[in-house]
Design a protein that fits this description.
Blueprint: E1 13-15, E2 21-24, E3 33-39, H1 44-51, E4 59-65, E5 72-76, E6 79-83, H2 85-88, E7 91-95
Antiparallel strand pairs: 1-2, 2-7, 3-4, 3-7, 4-5, 5-6
């Protein structure tokens, strides 16, 4: 007997104090652009993300997700960077219209 698994994705979208849509980098759709608000955490992973250019005020473009869902590929400072979904979940962003 074959079992069928169904995957439901829940997108986390928040509205910040100024009324802008806020979410995390891993929740973006391919082609969407967003401004980085902050990186959650103060550990080595957060530090490494900042070293790669994920700093507040920078614009990031979500390019694609790997076929099995991890990692995600994005563009920042003209460079294409792949980060794990767990790391991308720590990057809080404002969607750009």
């Amino acid at each position: 007997m074959a079992q069928v698994a169904t995957l439901f994705l829940l997108r986390l979208i928040l509205i910040n104090e100024s009324g802008e849509l806020t979410t995390t980098l891993d929740q973006l759709q391919p082609g969407q652009k967003a401004d980085i608000i902050r990186i959650d955490g103060a550990d080595s992973v957060a530090s490494r993300l900042r070293e790669m250019g994920f700093v507040p005020g920078e614009e990031v473009k979500y390019l694609r997700r790997a076929p099995l869902g991890d990692p995600v590929k994005c563009s920042i400072h003209g460079c294409r960077i792949a980060v794990r979904s767990g790391e991308a979940r720590r990057v809080l962003v404002d969607l750009v219209a």
